[in-house]
Amino acid sequence: MTPQKIEEPQGPQDNGTSASTTVPHGCIFSSGPMFEEPDLMIDDEDLMIEERLDSGDSQYEKALGELEAESKAKKAGEIDEEQGWRDFVDDLTVTWRNAIEVETRAFEVEEKAYVQEKQAIGEEKKVAEAMTKLAEKARKIAMEEKQKALEELKAAWEHFDSLREKKQALRDASSSGTARGRCQLMDEVY
To answer: What residue segments make up the domains of the chain, in order of their start?
Structure first.
């Protein structure tokens, strides 16, 4: 029996419920199955096939055989297609796993390169620090040499000035003094 609805309440009910929450009532059930099992259904076409087979129609048997062969081939094709999809999925899975492996290896190589770069930076830093120390030492030595040369230059200049003064004194003495005075002055200078 299939239920058939006669009336559906509209709006608020006397009992305080709304139409959307009420259960439909007043259904009339008709006789007859609500549904039939597909396996239990007997199709007119199936009856006709059996009748023609019973009659011994050879062309019909041949056509039916071809139809069954075609159906089997179709099922085999579906199985082949399904296997093809499974193979395709398996291939994709293998490709995906290979890609993950390659990515993992690339990451490991990148990590090693980073460590090597860090070490190289550390070594470069050490080399740069050593060069800086050498440059500072060379600068200090150069400054000491410059200072020493400056002091020697001052000493030479002072000696030159004193020689010039003595030479001037000798000239003055020779033009105005005696020979004995000149000799005495020369002994003091030299």
So the answer is: 2-8+17-34+44-171
